[in-house]
Amino acid sequence: MFAMQLRQHHQPLEWVELPDPEPGPDEIRIRIGACGVCRTDLHVVDGELANPTLPIIPGHEIVGRIDKLGSNVTSLNVGERVGIPWLGHTCEHCYYCTHGMENLCDHPLFTGFTRNGGYATMTVADARYAFPMGDKGEDKDLAPLLCAGLIGWRCLSKAGDGKKIGLYGFGAAAHIIIQVLRWQGRDVYAFTSPGDTEKQAFARSLGAVWAGGSDELPPEQLDAVILFAPVGTLVPTGLKAVRKGGKVVCGGIHMSPIPSFSYDTLWEEREIVSVANLTRQDGLDFLKLAPEIGIRVTNTPYALRDANQALDDLRHGRFEGAAVLIP
């Protein structure tokens, strides 16, 4: 198989040829059709997440067909299309796993971080953490749902059922979750980098009732805001945008330092909450609902060899929606 591999932080990914991986008893081997490029991949490459397994093949928005089954796998079939998300394995016996919070497992494995991911032509995955994807839709359009979509979905569950929702950072996750919010009949207020009129126009085209820079306040107070941009200074900014009792949901796995702010910014029962990973139930719920909503993913395809260019374009916001690698 061929892959783009990270050997050392702050270095470009390297094109390598490796032996085809063999699945363990509880694993499946997948021939990859597409893999989304996520901001978490940038955090891995930049060494902002602690204790990765190096060398590592990044990528955790994987769609492909099962090529080989492990000896214990009976729930899936060769040739079936599956999706592989960030959460790649849990211990299933710690407090969190036994209390419906496997996303907080004490001994997890994460795809593209502590086990090899999808910047490759082939990979192996724990069969218990693979989502059946059916045969409708193209691989490149489904791949971003496996993280950008799922994290947005979990953020939305934390944000509550308020009518007016703000989204800070209008990239892959926001352009998916705005479609869910509009389908639910809610109003969306989109915040981009100051002066990014193209992203603001993109947000309006997807149904945002207002779009502006992150240095602006919305025209009215919001019930909740979701921060997809990993920028700590947006936490107090978001608190100022929500009403009394409103929530600020931090959706990233990494964020720059949060500055100090006066207590009155938080007072009146405003809340700050974070989102970590996802559960398999999150995936089942969202992926079942996505076709009903009719989510359309805006993506920019890149050849697998061009993964470094895709990451750089993501870093500098050079495309709308999501980037997807095609082996």
Automatic annotation (TrEMBL):
PANTHER family documented for this protein: ALCOHOL DEHYDROGENASE 1-RELATED, VACUOLAR PROTEIN SORTING-ASSOCIATED PROTEIN 11
Metal-binding recorded as keyword: yes
Residues annotated as domain Enoyl reductase (ER): 8-325
InterPro entries per the UniProt record, alphabetical: ADH-like_N, ADH_Zn_CS, ADH_Zn_typ-2, ER, GroES-like_sf, NAD(P)-bd_dom_sf
Pfam families: ADH_N
Required cofactor names: Zn(2+)
Highest classification ranks of the organism: Bacteria, Pseudomonadati, Pseudomonadota, Alphaproteobacteria, Acetobacterales
Family (UniProt): Belongs to the zinc-containing alcohol dehydrogenase family.
Name of the molecule in the record: alcohol dehydrogenase
EC number: 1.1.1.1
Keywords assigned by UniProt, alphabetized: Metal-binding, Oxidoreductase, Zinc
Coiled coil: none
Major enzyme class: oxidoreductase
